[in-house]
Write a structure and sequence with these properties.
The protein is of the alpha/beta class. The protein has nine helices and ten strands. Helix 3 packs parallel to helix 4 and helix 6 packs across helix 7. The longest helix has 19 residues. It binds S-adenosylmethionine. This is Ribosomal RNA small subunit methyltransferase I. Its EC number is 2.1.1.198. It catalyses: cytidine(1402) in 16S rRNA + S-adenosyl-L-methionine = 2'-O-methylcytidine(1402) in 16S rRNA + S-adenosyl-L-homocysteine + H(+).
Length: about 240
């Protein structure tokens, strides 16, 4: 029966591509890829010769109709992105909606995913968590978004590009306070690293923060409440007054 497969691909280490994923990519009629040149490298490494079509983020709705057509012709399609799961901060949602609404099976094929690796190794509470993906690129957007998240009890997970991470962390410090966090970089790769500390400690690191990275930040539930902080501040003021006397 023609089906839509959502196939997770490696996020660095090619040994994390499962035999099932390879088999599915060999067996489907079409692979719809975010970037055909990137996917071509993966396919040639695993000797997969399936027909490849482009499925970019910018014309996803149109492209989804094209993929539905393949299923109507009796063909199975696999959607892949450059790394990790399709749909997770990547293309694939319109196709999944359109094709499932048309009554075809949608079958996820497990694999690597950056946010889960970062979360489990972060040392922060893993449940409940909130995966946000990328914050807005302007400071104004980030302020609005983080302001809304400030009261959330869940551990927060963000994706970020290395050249923007300092600005992003500055916004987090301002809107969320100096919470515990973990910066997980180069997951599954040779230089994988987890940098744990408070937001200000990470911002104080002198060297450039390089590579692909996930930012995990403690939720409001793991922090002292505003009331606690206020109480503490009042005790400090009281102490100051007493000392002065
Ligand atoms: N679909 C992917 C997934 O399932 O994780 C995410 C794709 S998103 C366009 C790319 C972002 O994911 C990067 O900017 C980075 O935040 C994160 N990422 C992807 N691979 C990573 C890795 N190996 N180590 C750390 N972060 C990674």
């Amino acid at each position: 029966r023609p089906s839509l497969y959502l196939v997770a691909t490696p996020i660095g280490n090619l040994d994390e591509f499962t035999p099932r994923a390879v088999q599915i990519l060999r067996e489907v009629d079409v692979i719809a890829a975010e970037d055909t040149r990137n996917t071509m490298k993966l396919l040639s490494h695993f000797d997969i010769k399936t027909h490849l079509v482009a499925h970019h983020a910018f014309n996803e709705k149109e492209s989804a109709k094209g993929l539905l057509k393949f299923l109507e012709e009796g063909k199975s399609v696999a959607v892949v992105s450059d790394a990790g799961y399709p749909l997770i901060s990547d293309p694939g949602l319109p196709a999944t909606q359109l094709i499932s609404e048309a009554g075809y099976p949608v079958i996820p094929i497990s694999g690597a995913n950056a946010m889960l690796n970062a979360l489990v190794a972060s040392g922060l509470p893993v449940q409940p968590f909130l995966f946000y993906g990328f914050l807005g690129s302007s400071e104004k957007e980030r302020t609005v978004q983080l302001h809304a998240l400030a009261q959330y009890p869940q551990t927060l997970i963000f994706y970020e590009a290395p050249h923007r991470v300092r600005k992003m962390l500055m916004s987090c410090l301002r809107e969320l306070g100096d919470r515990k966090m973990c910066l997980a970089r180069e997951l599954t790769k040779k230089h994988e690293e987890f940098i744990r500390g408070t937001i200000s400690e990470i911002l104080n690191i002198d060297e450039e923060l390089k590579g692909e990275m996930v930012i995990v930040i403690a939720g409001a539930a793991a922090c002292e409440s505003k009331d606690d902080l206020l109480q503490k501040a009042l005790i400090d003021v009281q102490q100051f007054v007493n000392d002065g006397m």
